[in-house]
Amino acid sequence: MSAPAKEGRVPRWLVRYASPVAVLAAWELSVRLGLVDPFLLPALSSVLLRAAEEIATGDVLFHAWLTIYRAMAGFLAATALGVTIGVLTARNRYCRWFFEPLVSVGFPMPKIAFMAIFILWFGIGDASKIVMVTLTCIFPIISATYLGCSQVDRYLVWSARNMGTSERRVLWKVVLPASLPQILNGLQIAFPSALIVTVVTEMISSGGGLGGYMILAARFALSEKVFVGVVVIAVVGYALLTVFGHVRRHILAWHAESQMAI
Amino acid sequence: MRPLAGLGRTAFYYTPLLIIGLAWEAMARTGILPPDLGPSPMQTIAALRLLYTDGDLVMHAGISFWREFAGFASSCVLGTAVGVGMARVDWVRTVFRPIVTFLYPMPKSALIPLLLLWFGIDHMSKIAAVFLGCLLPVVTSAFNGARGVEPQLIWSARSLGTSSTAILWKIVLPAALPDILSGVRIALSVSWLLLVSAELLISRSGLGFLISYTGESGDYSSMFAAILVVVSIGFLADRLFLHVIRWVLRYRDFTG
Amino acid sequence: MSKIEFAGVRKVFQGDTPNPVVAIDNIDLTVRQDEFVSIVGPSGCGKSTLLYLLGGFLDLSGGEIRVDGRAVTEPGPDRGIVFQHFALFPWKTVLGNVEYGLAEQGMGKAERREIAQGYIDMVKLGGFEDTFPNRLSGGMQQRVALARTLACDPDILLMDEPFGALDAQTRHILQEELLEIWSRRKKTVLFVTHDVREAVILAERCVVVTARPGRVKTEIDTSSGKADGAAIEKKAEEIWDVLREELVRT
């Protein structure tokens, strides 16, 4: 998609990738020239070689799969629960009375501190990790859904009622579709924290995953492996966010603003 | 319910939390909740008092606060400088924008093992975690804020005699402040999460360490108490910062 | 026989403030079958509220509204409404919007598609069937809204300042199109506007509402005397004279 560069100008792609390439080159060179201790900063080439080995044995891919599975399971559970609670909070005043203070207190809390309790309750397996991810993601989803549902243009609701939509079906025909942009915004805010928290839970309690893989490597002072973990997680994060962005844009094809945002 | 004012209204607002606490306490006392699920709210509060009187709590909280402050403050200063620089100076944008774009989707918690490797298990690795956690939200919000300054605002100031260097202090920063502050608010909560995570993982001090230490020694009442302290600090810090934002931006209609 | 009757209609908004706002007080109004009535008044006089009450979207605080002798209790497709800001469903295409009401009444896919297509062609939007409303200009969006409402074939058409958000040229074209549609398929129309010229051009009768609380101040016959521009100006001036007293009071 890169436009043909104007004459006498540096091509766009070069400008775009110049600084990351420079950083990577500086990394490689500083190790090669012996400016830094290769234990603290293994050369880029050796990290990539090591990554290729780990991928070839399938080891790191297995851990990546575990991380993705936990993050997605927790995130999807948070989506189902969060949207339900958000809709109830917007449409029923008793639910609003009950959930509003819980959300306003729970939203800014560092939920990761509860991990110790979840391990006590649900053990060190997948369950405690997934619950932790769900708890982390649910607050932005509830509050975005609540905002979206309570700000639906009353004229849209009236239009539907006018054309024969019953009071109860308005939720499905108007309120949910109209608040979809906000709900997806909430999901987009929650999504990165799913990965952040999954990785931490894996570092805290055993059971593999990229977090476990890295913390183990750090404990045994295998610095190359730690870097492999960082690289793989960065790739996983980038891939998941890209997929999420595409899905969002596809769903909101009708929504002018989200088409422009990249 | 409208006429309820001030304290009464706040109390009414938080009633559901009180009800949950009371229900928990009641179920724990009557044995509906098995004791191995952990202490009841009253036991937690008793443990909290003990932690406070023997000084452990204050010491660990002090250490955590110091780490948080050092990382947070340095990150806010540097992040704002880089963000505003990116918005105002072409070559700064050319250099940093791709780096920011590449680092953005990276789950920052994955850097914790690396920081342990580099900086050891003492203060420095935790401060670095806080610093890195804050950096991107501050940089991106400062960038967006400074980019969004209306050119007419700058032109007006220039024609009224403000020099081009003073524009930065007198126009760009104040105009970008709302964005910067909302970025800092995100940074505050992310950094506290990363600090506690890092302390939970490998540390010899700090509130996160207190949680993992009491948990490992089976003193669940103290563990619950420490968790209560950590999440309360997170909540109160956010509320406090919200009030600061409201005060600083009192010149405009602040909603939300 | 009268199609619509407002009898002692009153609407009070309770709201959050200690003093309730009386939007409309004791309005009596009768509209004949197939009549085109415009309602003008100062802004905030409750003229739109009158439509929302007839539409069944708001509850009455007093009095009664009857359509064909039956009291209005809830919204229904017999009273189609067009809002000032279109209120199109942004997640549905032009065709999806126009088909919506027909689908809600349980009409089969092929049939509703055909009917919707007819109305889309009528408002001159053929070729835009699969476009989302956000990609259309204001005038085109209001055409879609008109087609959507007409597709349900309502007896009564409620129009809430429908051309108020459009630029002057577009407004003029849509006024002409509305008159043409109205002359082809007769409907009872209640048209709220703050533009007295528009009221004269379109309606047969103009109801002037007072400043808040809204009451019927007077009714002016606008069925004749719009042969040329000068006549329209004269009629508009007549309404203006009545309205001016009210505008001073707001």
Describe the structure.
The complex is a heterotrimer of chains A (262), B (256) and C (250). Chain A is mostly helical and 262 residues long. Chain A has 11 helices and no strands. Chain A has one domain: MetI-like fold, CATH 1.10.3720. The longest helix of chain A has 35 residues. Chain A is globular. Chain B has 256 residues and is an all-alpha fold. Chain B has a single domain, classed as MetI-like fold (Orthogonal Bundle), CATH 1.10.3720.10. In chain B, helix 3 packs across helix 11. Chain B starts with 5 loop residues before the first helix and ends in an 8-residue tail after the last helix. Chain C is of the alpha/beta class. In chain C, 37% of the residues lie in helices and 25% in strands. Chain C has 7 helices and 10 strands. In chain C, helix 2 runs parallel beside helix 4.
Provide keyphrases for this structure.
heterotrimer; A: 262 residues; 0% strand; globular; disordered N terminus; C: 250 residues; alpha/beta; Rossmann fold; six-stranded mixed β-sheet; four-stranded antiparallel β-sheet; 10 strands
Which SSEs are present, and which pair or pack?
The complex is a heterotrimer of chains A (262), B (256) and C (250).
Chain A: H1 12-32, H2 44-57, H3 59-91, H4 93-106, H5 115-122, H6 126-150, H7 154-162, H8 170-204, H9 209-219, H10 223-251, H11 256-260
Helix pairs in contact in A: 2-10, 3-4, 3-6, 3-8, 3-9, 5-6, 6-8, 7-8, 8-9, 8-10, 9-10
Chain B: H1 6-13, H2 15-30, H3 41-53, H4 56-88, H5 90-103, H6 112-119, H7 123-147, H8 151-159, H9 166-201, H10 207-216, H11 220-248
Chain C: E1 2-13, E2 21-32, E3 36-40, H1 47-55, E4 62-67, E5 70-71, E6 79-82, H2 94-104, H3 109-122, H4 138-151, E7 156-160, H5 168-184, E8 188-192, H6 196-202, E9 205-209, E10 216-221, H7 229-248
Parallel strand pairs in C: 3-8, 3-9, 6-7, 7-8
Antiparallel strand pairs in C: 1-2, 1-4, 4-5, 9-10
Helix pairs in contact in C: 2-3, 2-4, 3-4, 6-7
